[in-house]
Amino acid sequence: MTKTMRERLGESERGFTLIELMVVILIIGLLATIVVQNLRGATDKAKRIKAEADISALKTALDRYYLDNGSYPTSDQGLPALVSAPTNGKVPADYPDGGYIEKVPNDPWNTPYFYQSDGNSYVLKSYGADGVEGGTGKNADIDGSSSS
Questions:
Q1: Side-chain half-sphere CA neighbours of 123 within 13 A
Q2: How far is it, in rounded angstroms, from Cα 83 to Cα 36?
Q3: φ/ψ of residue 29, rounded to 5
Q4: In this structure, what CATH number is given to the domain that contains residue 88?
Q5: In angstroms, how far is the first alpha carbon of the chain from the final one?
Q6: Is residue 6 in a domain?
Q7: What total number of domains does the chain contain?
Q8: What is the pLDDT of residues 35-63, one digit of tens each?
Q9: Which residues pair with 115 in a beta bridge?
């Protein structure tokens, strides 16, 4: 009077079929793909926002430099003139201790910000993710040039 294995387990305790497991794995894979795509877009957006914040801080420092010295640092002096007094070109007479910023940051893609100036106006920008002028989306330039 021994029962078979199937009779002992009952119909409700048989487990999953291979097809059911494959469907579940497929659904998990699709959900993971959607999450990764959304995170990738959020990372690109965060980098653009960081670049815009850096450019804003650099513009503020450049404007303070201009107010104190009557001109912007030239292209030869570059953005390092905001950290320590330049030794070439028009040397500022009244340079503050500690400079205008602590250090010149790279953009979020680890590329130096582009800076060009004749002393009266300047071009300040990040070339975006690809590091090449122009582009769209995450590769688009982020511009912070002066309007003078």
A1: 8
A2: 39
A3: -60, -45
A4: 3.30.700.10
A5: 100
A6: no
A7: 1
A8: 888 777 788 888 889 999 999 999 999 99
A9: 124
